[in-house]
Automatic annotation (TrEMBL):
The chain crosses the membrane at residues 12-40, 52-72, 84-105, 111-132, 172-195, 215-237, 244-262, 274-294. It is found in: Cell membrane; Membrane. This is Probable membrane transporter protein. One of its GO terms (cellular component) is plasma membrane. Keywords: Cell membrane, Membrane, Transmembrane, Transmembrane helix. The keyword Acyltransferase does not apply. It is a multi-pass membrane protein. Pfam families: TauE (PF01925).
Length: 308
């Protein structure tokens, strides 16, 4: 009941499960300022969707959830357009590299393994660092000790870089190089892993660029819209791995969940949000690692060819 056939993925899935998955990812996008692909793509793979199709379709769904989240953040004045433009410029370059890399790996039959291993490394590292920092902040607060605030404009090595620009909304005067580099890395991850890259971009904007946390969330989602839209187009035209029907179901759920996520995020403090996001990231990393090392139920499986 409620089964629907996906023409590109060439499998049948439960309609309600896909809608619920999209809504859950949209909720996370609005709450944490991340695209949610770091959860969506692995879950699609666990549902039997081929890795390359999960990456392309996951990136497409992030466009819908990010639009929903950005509109909500825009109304609150939490989007820095100047910073967003630089992040987008870097993201476009990174996306081109990632799509071509995935195309090559599909050709040699190693896409699934490399994608899974990359997820484990990135999510495990980022999640552990974020959890460590968040727990330390909360422990110091409970002990009544002062917590050094991350104020906008306070930097160290970034001040020595050239090509400085002013970002009035974030109250920053820094080099354009770090935002471009962060955007490039996020674009690469978006195209190669099917993620929005928020789990990398949000910590980088907070700890490296020293942007205010509320501006970080809105600007992060804003950048994700344009980069994931480009990634979707590139995967559809170059790799032919976009399942429109699956993407449509995920977007419907994601747009609805995004609005509720923004409201929930307003009720939690910054360190609480970071701790929750860290635990979620670590949980996904562990799940993927278990899936890699555990003995599969079916030793042999049939995966559609790269050209199909």
């Amino acid at each position: 009941m409620f089964q629907i056939y996906l023409p590109i993925a060439e499998i049948s899935v439960n309609l309600l499960v896909m809608l619920g998955l999209g809504a859950a990812v949209g909720f996370l996008s609005g709450m944490f300022g991340v695209g949610g692909g770091f959860l969506l793509t692995p879950f699609l793979m666990l549902s039997g969707i081929p890795p390359a199709i999960a990456v392309a379709t996951g990136a497409n769904q992030i466009v819908g959830t990010s639009v929903s989240g950005t509109l909500a953040q825009w109304r609150r004045g939490n989007v820095d357009l100047h910073m967003g433009a630089l992040l987008i410029a870097g993201g476009v370059a990174g996306a081109l590299v990632g799509v071509l890399l995935l195309k090559y790996l599909r050709g040699v039959g190693q896409a699934g393994l490399i994608i899974s291993l990359t997820y484990v490394v990135f999510l495990g590292t980022i999640g552990a660092l974020m959890l460590w920092e968040s727990v330390n902040v909360m422990r110091r607060q409970r002990a009544g000790k002062s917590v050094s605030a991350r104020k906008s404009g306070q930097h160290n090595w970034i001040h020595g870089l050239p090509f400085k620009m002013r970002f009035p909304r974030s109250r920053l005067y820094i080099s354009a190089i770090p935002p471009l580099a962060i955007g490039g890395l996020v674009g690469l991850l978006a195209s190669f892993l099917g993620v929005g890259g928020g789990f990398i971009m949000v910590p980088a904007m907070i700890y490296i660029l020293r942007m205010p946390t509320n501006i970080v969330v809105g600007t992060s989602i804003f950048q994700i819209i344009f980069v994931t839209a480009l990634v979707t187009l590139l995967h559809a035209t170059l790799n032919h791995t976009l399942d429109i029907l699956l993407a449509f179901l995920l977007i419907i759920g994601g747009v609805i969940g995004g609005q509720f996520g923004v409201r929930a995020g307003q009720k939690l403090r910054g360190e609480q949000l970071r701790a929750l996001l860290a635990l979620m990231v670590l949980g996904v990393a562990v799940r993927i690692l278990i899936d890699l090392v555990a003995r599969p139920a079916d030793i042999y499986s049939i995966i559609p060819a790269a050209g199909g």
